[in-house]
Amino acid sequence: MSGGTSSRVSRFVPRNWSFAVLAVAVLLVPAFTRDTYILSIFAFMATRFMVVVGLWLLLGLAGQISLGHAAFVGLGAYGSAILVTRADVNPWLALVMSAVLAAAIAGLIGIPTLKLKGHYLAMATMGFGEIIHILLIQLKGLTNGTDGITGIPPLSLGPLNFSDPRLYHLLVWVVALIFFLLALNLTNSRLGRALQALRRSEVAAQSLGVDTSWRKLQVFMLSAVAASIAGSFDAHYVQFVSPDSFTLNVSVILVCSVVIGGFRSVWGAVWGTLLITILPEIIKRFNEDAVNLVFGLLIIVIVVLLPVKSGPLARLQLLLRGRERL
Amino acid sequence: MALLTLEGVSMRFGGLDALQDVGFHLHEQQIKALIGPNGAGKTTLFNCITGALRPTAGRVLLEGRDVTAWPAHRMCHEGVGRTFQHSRLFDDMSVLENVMVGRHARTSAGLLSAFLRLPRHRREEAESRQAAMDALWRVDLVDRADQPASSLPLGERHLLEMARALATEPRILLLDEPAAGLNDEETERLATSVRRIRDEGVTILLVEHDMGFVMDISDEVVVLDYGRKIAEGPPLMIQADEEVIRAYLGEELE
Ligand SMILES: Nc1ncnc2c1ncn2[C@@H]1O[C@H](COP(=O)(O)OP(=O)(O)OP(=O)(O)O)[C@@H](O)[C@H]1O
Ligand SMILES: [Mg+2]
């Protein structure tokens, strides 16, 4: 291939048929259905997908666990809700401001916590998630407590009003797919290799010039931004936010989806997302209350019962075991 | 001026003095060996030089500049490369990718260029790939480039660690027991590689228990025993040193 725009585009978009197939398939969904229920499942799938891809970069690629990622989704959702309904900020600007806030908070809490390994990191991030959850409930003046915030307007852009579920589907999936593409590119880069290297051995990575503390912080902030943006989209779509959407439960399910999808490739995030969005819908048909039960059992089965020698779970266990010896 | 100078380097782990007041010079293009019985503190000294550990006392000088306790990644940028006694390869990457990680310090593409595959990043990737292949060539591992690192036999694992370190363009290369697990022929090949690397301008400090290899290859030897330097000098002198023989060599050389 020679010069010109087309080759430039094709280099940015790696020659990756799997990605093309995925993109075309999901973007065509609105051509086949107007069913708002199905479209709503897809809408949540898109935002979950963003969160899971971000978390995959942190956990799957760099090997750093976070059990507090629902909090970053919450920061995005509440950031948008508060800024838009209380301060009349433009929704897009609010989305960006919330993401910046999430990045800043991730930076602040990442500096001390990412020094920790294994179970300690898991507990520290879990603690952070719980603190945010409690703040969302307690800061009533700002968040309206357990009642949550209503009346968040749908997104719009010039003449396009994304309250139309099919239009929204296109918007949210284009954003999610772009982020996925960026993540694919990242894994195939100098920084992707550095993150993968430090997952295996921080000492070795450092000896090869990788500033591991900074790289871990960077990917933590990146995953927080992805989560926050996803939260903002959800808030505008549902037009309502409440603290129950951002619990430890959600954080655990997110981690599960990364583990189930596998650490081998960021494509694991696709399968993990499918599972955590489709499975609950199927279970709900039989029994509304069984969702948490089934997920709980699933986690127990995966973490405790399966005798694993290799694969993502073995990696997770290894990772939870902690610090490498010099 | 010496390329690397250690002054009174000491390292204490709880009640254990792993290193006590160790000092010596490493001159440009030297091959210097560090020997001593198990637990003498050789690996600990490597960790102190490369910033993996902060010595509890003493100074590490690089061309006269105090670099004591600089973070390890910064020491890499300054041209200090190392291998590990117990290999720390990135087992889930290919051989070539392992070496490409070694280009990290010599490349600069940031998050944005990686995300967008900007031309600068693609150029750097191509250069990294080339430099990594060169490094593999220097240790005779080119034909393994595309294999998973986990598939390498023990002897080649250390060669890969060397290639990875070479890719960082070190001025000083620290090798921790490079000949461990090698047969005679492989050890011979290793010696040839190490000499060639030195001839290309890299200064070498190595830890090794294979005395034949050490005496054959090094210009100078430092002997550690219980964390103290008990002798330093050219191989022939070390072989004749009574204290060294008592502490270490007697058993090994016979
Ligand atoms: N990170 C550490 N924490 C506590 N003690 C340590 C640590 N690293 C090394 N030691 C102790 O310091 C002493 C020196 O160990 P070191 O690994 O430097 O010896 P060595 O000369 O490399 O031995 P070998 O020939 O067996 O590799 C040993 O007693 C060891 O147990
Ligand atoms: Mg040792």
| CATH classification, class level of chain A | Mainly Alpha
| Beta strand % of chain B | 15-25%
Measured by DSSP, the beta-strand proportion of chain A falls in under 5%
Number of helices, where a helix is a run of at least 4 consecutive DSSP H or I residues of chain A: 15
- Overall number of structural domains of chain A: 1
Gross CATH architecture of the largest domain in chain B = 3-Layer(aba) Sandwich
Would you tell me which CATH topology of chain A applies?
ABC transporter involved in vitamin B12 uptake, BtuC
Name the largest protein-protein interface in this structure.
A-B, 29 and 46 residues
Instruction: Write down the secondary-structure element order of chain B.
Output: EEEHEEHEHHHHEHEHEEHH
Q: Cofactors and ligands present?
A: adenosine-5'-triphosphate, magnesium ion
Structural class of chain B: alpha/beta
- Give the count of helical stretches of chain B: 10
Structure, described:
The complex is a heterodimer of chains A (326) and B (254). Chain A contains 15 helices and four strands. Chain A has a single domain, classed as ABC transporter involved in vitamin B12 uptake, BtuC (Orthogonal Bundle). The termini of chain A are far apart. In chain A, 75% of the residues lie in helices and 2% in strands. With 254 residues, chain B is of the alpha/beta class. Helices cover 40% and strands 23% of the residues of chain B. Chain B has a six-stranded mixed sheet, sandwiched between helices. Chain B has a four-stranded antiparallel sheet with strand order 2-1-4-5, with helices on one face. Chain B starts with a strand and ends with a helix. The mean pLDDT of chain B is 93. The structure holds adenosine-5'-triphosphate and magnesium ion. Adenosine-5'-triphosphate is lined by residues 13, 16, 18, 36, 38-44, 85 of chain B.
